[in-house]
């Protein structure tokens, strides 16, 4: 099979008549959210240093670079497809840049069916042009005069999407710029998630929740709503957002809540066997219920520290917890974060210490 034959061996995806999001748009959103939630775990052992504003490049990891790139590129792809979808709902021609073949152009004008091979010869407008076109058409009430997407053309939202396009171009065309951890949190949580939430509500996103959304967690909270709420406060609580992101990441990984109870039972049995072995470890403090999967699988680890003076005399000897890890859904945090209750989260305190006599 040569390259031309490969190009023809494609599947044409489409949007149904109910104006729901295209398959690739919703999948791009899923990938972007999973990567955003993973940015905490990609840097969790260096999160303590970030609290002191020491955000030198050496504090970041290749895993963070990877997740950051996926967040920006796939969110950009999601918004581009959504914007073009809004334009296509009026007319396919609004998203066309140019068509060399007059027969294909005629088909478009007459709204006749286009084959996959013909689609390959159609070039659509790029992100910034489609955004400008949507803003102009909606603002003039030429399309969507009922006001249902007016939120998308608000100045702050347009500015956020322009910045997203800039960040994407820096990755794709220059490959040398990334946002630091805190700035990424603010950009996503304060500026983009509120737009995404409204788009999902408008485009019946909840009906596609099985495609893009994380599973329900034991706490009964919606991670996106909670992150948005954090940024409605005056001060950005980095620790709380980190917990919420880890809950979101682990919710995607949670093997429970499958369609078949027998699979859940198998997972629980294997996890229990693993924990029975792990519980014998000397550095296990206790095992509690996980805030994500709800199983008694969240293992809290402890360590001891002994300080001795110059004369070899013991100054202090204390025990402390330093890590919590779920062996079922993979939820994992460490003591560089404040205790959950300090972040207004209904999770048992994980970090504590005591002197050893």
Automatic annotation (TrEMBL):
<protein>
    <submittedName>
        <fullName>Uncharacterized protein</fullName>
    </submittedName>
</protein>
């Amino acid at each position: 099979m040569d390259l031309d034959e490969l190009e023809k061996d494609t599947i044409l995806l489409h949007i149904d008549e109910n104006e729901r999001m295209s398959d690739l748009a919703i999948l791009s959103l899923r990938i972007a959210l999973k990567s955003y939630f993973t940015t905490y775990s990609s840097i969790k052992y260096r999160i303590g240093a970030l609290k002191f504003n020491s955000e030198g490049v050496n504090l970041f990891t290749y895993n963070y670079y990877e997740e950051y790139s996926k967040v920006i590129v796939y969110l950009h792809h999601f918004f581009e497809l959504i914007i073009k979808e809004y334009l296509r709902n009026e007319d396919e021609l609004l998203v066309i840049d140019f068509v060399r073949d007059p027969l294909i152009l005629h088909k478009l004008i007459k709204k006749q069916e286009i084959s996959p091979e013909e689609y390959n010869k159609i070039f659509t407008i790029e992100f910034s042009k489609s955004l400008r076109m949507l803003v102009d058409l909606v603002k003039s009430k030429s399309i969507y005069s009922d006001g249902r997407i007016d939120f998308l053309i608000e100045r702050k939202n347009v500015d956020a999407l322009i910045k997203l396009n800039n960040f994407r171009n820096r990755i794709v065309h220059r490959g040398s710029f990334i946002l630091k951890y805190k700035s990424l949190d603010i950009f996503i949580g304060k500026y983009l998630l509120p737009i995404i939430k409204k788009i999902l509500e408008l485009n019946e996103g909840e009906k596609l929740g099985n495609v893009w959304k994380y599973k329900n967690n034991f706490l009964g909270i919606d991670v996106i709503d909670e992150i948005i709420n954090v940024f409605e406060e005056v001060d950005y609580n980095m620790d709380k957002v980190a917990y919420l992101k880890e809950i979101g990441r682990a919710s995607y990984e949670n093997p429970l809540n499958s369609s078949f109870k027998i699979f859940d039972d198998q997972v629980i049995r294997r996890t229990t066997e693993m924990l029975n072995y792990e519980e014998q470890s000397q550095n296990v403090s206790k095992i509690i219920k996980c805030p994500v999967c709800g199983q008694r699988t969240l293992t809290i680890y402890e360590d001891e520290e002994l300080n001795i003076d110059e004369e070899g005399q013991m100054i202090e000897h204390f025990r402390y917890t330093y890590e919590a890890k779920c062996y079922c859904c993979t939820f994992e945090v460490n003591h560089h974060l404040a205790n959950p209750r300090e972040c207004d989260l209904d999770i048992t305190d994980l970090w504590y210490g005591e002197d050893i006599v």
